[in-house]
Amino acid sequence: MSSPFAQLAEARIKEAIDAGEFDNLSGKGQPLDMDGYFSAPSSLRSGFGLLKSASVVPPEVTAMLEVAGLRHHLESATGERAELLRKQLQMKEVELTMALERVKRALKADVIA
Q1: Domain with 65 in it
Q2: DSSP secondary structure string for all residues of 41-61
Q3: Residue 32 above 70 pLDDT?
Q4: How many structural domains compose the chain?
């Protein structure tokens, strides 16, 4: 026997189907590509899924892009501007290293579990 919540959810889904709310979804009738989902550590999947649904880039990727941008700007900078960019780059690289270390720990925890 299903719970009242499950019954309510099923009723709402049926109403939405009957109203045609699922008729024009992108990718309708196509298989789901779950490779990206299952390649992420299980402890991070829900968070990555939320970010993807919201069209938000993971913080590690954002940090990588910022590091690349700082390195690019540093190539042509001189004087005080170059020193400021070097300090910003160093801070951003530390932030990125720490973020990637958290991901590594999550991956290791998945392998052990």
Answers
A1: 57-113
A2: -HHHHHHHHHHHHTT---HHH
A3: yes
A4: 1
